Model the fold of this input.
Amino acid sequence: MTIARVIVDVPSRDTDRAFDYTIPERLQGWVEIGSRVAVPFGPRKLQGIVIGLAEDADVELAKLKPIEEVLDALPPLSPELVELGEWMSRRWLCPLTVSLQAMLPAALKGRSEKYVFPAAGAQWSDEETARSGGLLLALRKGKPLKLAMLLQQYPEQGAALKRWLRQGRLEERQRVEDKSSGKTVYTVFPADAETLLKAVEEIPARASKQREVVRYLAENNDPIAVARLAAEASTTSATIRSLEERGLLEIRSVTEERDPYADRDFTASNPMVLTPKQATALAPIVDALNERSSEAFLLHGVTGSGKTEVYLQAIQRCLELGREAIVLVPEIALTAQLVERFKSRFGALVAVLHSRLSNGERYDEWRKIREGRAQVAVGARSAIFAPFSSIGLIVIDEEHETSYKQEESPRYHAREVAIERARLHGAAVVLGSATPALETYEAAAHTRGGSQSGLGKIGYIGLPERVANRPLPGVQIVDMREELKLGNRAMFSRSLAAAIKDRLEKQEQIVLLLNRRGYATFVMCRSCGYTAACPHCEISLTYHRGSSNLRCHYCGYSEAEPKTCPSCESPHIRFFGTGTQKVEEALAEAFPGIRVIRMDVDTTTEKGSHERWLTEFRERRADVLLGTQMVAKGLDFPYVTLVGVLAADSALRLPDFRAPERTFQLLTQVAGRAGRHELPGEVIIQTYDPEHESITSVQGHDYQGFVERALLLRKQLGYPPYGRLIGVTFSHESAAMLLSIGGQFASGLRERAMELGIRKEFDSTGASALEVLGPVSSPIARLKDRYRFQCMVKYRGDVDASLLVSRVLGEIGEAAKRGGVQISVDVDPQMML
DNA sequence: AGCACGCCGACT
DNA sequence: GTCGGCGTGCTC
Done:
């Protein structure tokens, strides 16, 4: 008897283990590791993933319930992805179902739905009917209705529904449903009649049902739905399945496909001739591919050095070897321009996965991969889970981007998942960036010395020059304090204003970066000092001019623009700080006739708007592309010769040890947008802190220098990559409980560390150390009506802090649950806020 | 996480 | 007496 070990879709600590089920006869052969199944669980019916099959497991069979259904013709996950999920849940301390669920396309994240319908012979009095406000009339039409929908439509009838269900006058039924709208039919594609007839002889006489099916198919040699064929031959799908194993037929899920790129022509492109530098960069990657060794490389190339062509040719080689490739790109860089580059080189072999596709479209692309019709997957973070079976190469472009870390559970980092997945496949990893993350750089620089970062060995490949020897743009730093002294109170310095005017005359283009959206960043009353804050979060509200309201950028709350102070009714209420909307206005004022495209979260929510703006800019229907960091990444426009940064230090003062690194990276990236083609580029950076290293290093394009100094500082303070962090956040609607639960966690962890003889101090001896900071109120003390406290665990890489933390959480979990305190754990947090 | 079961106050 | 409040414990 085979037992299936199933992870049910209940994301909690208590249920984070496999539950055993029997496999009923009709599903024999369909249940595999990675199958998605519907199972009974207590009184409910749930979706689950099979993570193991055990022959006659050591359990009381009588206690086991059978699997109810297998939900896909092909298991959506492979044993390798299940293993990867197990690794993830250990690495980032999340329930296994959460990491497995993260690998499925949204269309397959079916939830179970409850339906209710009247029991046979159930009666209701006229009075009850009248009081139900139409509910009973709807129900008595006979069709089962969704319980969730009824509760939403008749909110007052909840109690009545419950009563009737208990009394048995209503019945409920639960089904696990897919979200995908496209209809899927599992279809049998038979081999040709001749092959089938020949094969009949070889099928053992005992397998009479199989023979019958084959004879049927020999006569009716057309594709037929699995269910119909089973009915036709009065047998079960298990029979058909074994025929598939004999190679006499193929079962495929057939759907109407939506190809989001169907209406577009891609002109074929051939490999370009590599520069000698590019060729040198490519060589070690190709060596690794040929040897099938799971090596990782940092491809450190300045902006415009032609990294993409290196990726393309590495992928080419990978495909020639009959293996598949994954390319990760930051979401906002995943533009038509980039997709086109891959499509034109590899054609229909490319599947594209990004968040702007509908669930259905995404599911189609995902199936192309699963069914082997695509060999290259290009996508954002979650494309790292592309269901390939033989991966040869994983490329992560702009590997330093923060978007590779998922900010909700599972809080994984795609870079690390890539390295682990590559290890399982014997695949090469290429991490490309002009400004590598300090963690990556350190791992590459000290690969021989033994790195603390946890990334393992990384080979270093440098690409220090732009193609065709185009110079890097000149960078000018403007001290805005000097401007103020000279009486210039405008938001554009004299040199930036002059440069803008010059480009307008020459009909060249300009990119302007300001990392704050909205119009004004805070609202204050000059009489009483009142500032407008979100009632749900401890965050000041941002004024948006178009809609004349104040908005919270954390929870989306908005309120009307105040005319007088809500606190003292003084009319002296003023808007402070500059956002992109205000810059747009100032540009129009200072340069009449200027054509500006503003690109930020507010103007790009609509589907396709992002690409539309970029196309408009590329076609030079605008002079200025003004925006938040989304204008800094990966864009390549030949006529951009000026890049202006309005407030370079805006992110520098955040209470986050990575703030200087982020600032340097952002400035370098945006500077790289200028002068990428024939026309030379110029960059003007405005700041109130012109001496700051994050800014001065951009001027000299001095990554090396910046990084060496930053790493030294990190080492002194025990921050990553030399020490590591785990952030634990406790939240509750009231603050009262948080300090005590947080305190219990901190002291519990300190005790455990002491027992194991782990030192508290980080010192030069290099001995294991672990330190617990907090609990303290989080930098954002309240978010969406919940107060937040946090602890930060700082430790050296040789301490298994994850294990310690999960043990302590196990101890205090009960108390936290009773008190209603939510705990979220972030291993290797990327944002300190 | 849900959902049932169980033991307590406020209604017909 | 019953309805429904939410604390507790279990789900193969």
Summary: Residues 9-12, 14-15, 41-44 of chain A lie near DNA strand B (CB under 10 Å from a C1'). The two ends of chain A are 52 Å apart (CA to CA). The mean pLDDT of chain A is 87.
